Amino acid sequence: MAAGITRTGIGVVGDISWGTHLCHFYETKQDLLDILLPYFRTGLENNEFCFWVVAPPLDLEEARDALRKAVPEADRHQAAGRIEMVPHSSFFSSDQPAGSAGSVEIISHTEWYLKGGAFLAAQVVRGWNEKLAKALAKGYAGMRANGNEAWLTKENWKDFIQYEKTLDEELADKRMIVLCSYPLSGASANEILDVVNSHQFALIRRTGKWEVVESSELKQAKAEINRLNEELEQRVVERTRELAAANEQLKKEIAERWRAEDRIRLIIDTIPVMAWSVRPDGIVDFLNQRWMNYAGLSLEQYVADPTGPIHPEDTPRVLEKWLAQMALGEGYDDEMRLRRADGEYRWFLVRTAPLRDESGKVIKWYGVSTDIEDRKGAEEALRASEAHLQAAVDAADIGLWDWDMASAQLMWLGHHEKLFGFAPGEFDGAYSSFEKHIQPEDLEKLNRAVQRARDEGSEYAHEYRVIWPDGSIHWIASRGRFMYDETGRPVRMCGAVLDITERKEAEEALRQSEWELAEAQRIARLGSWSFDIAANKVRWSEELFRIFDLEAEAFGATYEAFLSRVNVDDRAAVLWVNAEARSSGEPFEVEYRITTRNGKTKHVREIGYARKDGASAVAGLFGTAQDITEIKQAEDQLKRSNRDLRALSARLQSVREEESARIAREIHDELGSVLASLRWELEDIEEVISERPDALPMGFRCHKIAALIGLTDSVIDTVKRIASELRPIALDEFGLSEAIQWHAQQFQDRTGISVKWDSLLEDLNLNREQSTAIFRIFQEALTNTLRHAQATRVDILMSREGGEFVLTIRDNGKGITEDEKAAMSALGLLGMRERAHLIGGEIHVSGAEGRGTAVTLRAPLLAAPTSRKPASSE
User: Fold this and answer.
1) pLDDT band with cut points at 50, 70 and 90 for residue 657
2) 175 vs 136: CA distance, rounded Å
């Protein structure tokens, strides 16, 4: 040790040599301060650098406050630079001077013992040496330190005790003393012995007083020093003094033994367990203080009734096991309830071990009783929690799994086997067996999801299909997390699975329903919409975007964005019905126009309803919008058709009147003239006969008869012509083909326009209505040619295409224009179309300026006609 001594400030210890390594045990924060405050106050008085490593139950601020109270001059010392309170952030740095501004440092244990998160003994020892060197360089008389070891855990206990022994050796010959503080609560008897044996002596409070417990090593060291000193002194004295020294040494050893027994008894009384011993005959001969305090019994009272503290329900089982183990001579563990002094029973773990002599005979039983009431409560809470978890698993029909990656074994819990179609206990736990039941096309995606979760340290969540043993397919949703070792290597993975087949089927049904709805909307050109008034958000179905010819990304999804698409002239009406619906909450209907991107105008009919909130206020609107452009066009076409039909009806009435007038005129002019002539001839004959009945020469009679015959023939021809114009006799007698051919010849003879007629049909097989309508259409076509075409040639062709009769009348005139076809004067075309419609046919009129006009009639045939070679006439 370094030469010299220093005052500790601890009354029971007094002065000690430099290089002393001591410890003390505390139960409360006040125990800690009772030792440390006078310890550091004395160090300041001795001009020593003080180094204080704090840990719970004392924090940095509490330590500073306590020191200020213990050292009234602390603030003055600090102002003068003799005391420095410094932060603990960089005390391991070798370039940080010790006590750079003062003689006290107070830091946290995490910055001294656990720098970087781990305890490294060599680093701490090096730190002590550096602190001492810098303190001495600053002119301090030495250094005193304290470290509170309350932070120690079971995992680093062994390493720390070895460090304490190393530190004990390092302190030799150094002007430094170290006081280590250990909490007594939670420390086992073995741990207390480890601490005492790794220090030169220990301080323990007993019955309110601090006592010094010296280690055997210290005693031996002192004895050795005394022996060496005495040996040195005895070199100049007689040999007889050696015997006196030996006797003195023997007395000390005897006294040490007594002190050692007291020390052990003190330790046993202060350890946080109930210790006891039993003779081989089963009689208890020792109870530690904690046992007697708990039970409220003295040793004599307990010996008189050893089973009294045991719960009556546990007594038979405990006695049976104790007697059996005594007979076997083997230690054992047992759990039982023991009565506390206040009458409350608590659970204890009782452990016994036999002490044997050299022959193996049991000479004593030792035991400890550890309070496990809290553990029992935790176990009960855990069982309840497990029961609740199992109930939740059963209610949700969930499967749980635990994958040990080292062994590639899977543990399935809960309903996992059922969810994969297995019978209980059928799954062999192999990961490969699990993979075999995954739908092949899903396996790669599943493995990628697992790989990603493992590499990223993220939660695993995936859905996949499994194949049951019966071949059926089921959907599974799986979630889990990896667990990693201290090197970051994944070692296992845990999670849960849930059958989502019904959800998937519902989703598929929903998708199908949505598709069918979208298709129905597309077919009906009907879209749906909703409007959240507060958020000013408009939602459209896909069909509505098609109707408005908009991309979803280009739509602002606000009411103003919708309104901007409405025709300017229609916006006022739309705004009005919208405002009315918001105010009244009544359904509404409105029609408006929109313009598409290509400039096309569409008509839209919108029907809407109000959506009310809990207060019956209108919170939004929803409804449908339908493209009614074709309906509007049909309505306009119907209006035009009605107008045209009214015009046609008027025209037909006019035509009838004109035809009646013409027929009346022809009858009056032609038949009336011929009949008048016939009457005059008959009157001449009557006059001649009445005057001279026998004087009619033969020539006169023949001449008159011939005249009368001629007049009669003229009458007959006129009547036939008029009847033919009303309905050609050839149509009824010879059929449509011959009637058309006859009328074509009549047209050519009357107008001088060349007519060519061709027919590819032999038997038309048309009914009377069809034949009449076709003939009248043919007549009207020739009449229009005569009136408007300025043609010199007309080609007529009858043919069959599919199941239709086709009649084409083509001229080489000036050609009809679109304006002429649409004009009101084109009533002839309208009449032709109406006649064609009545027989299920249609008329097509085409033409080009300067290239003539073609009229094509198509009408259904009653039966397939017989084709033949073309018949034609010029």
Assistant:
1) low
2) 9
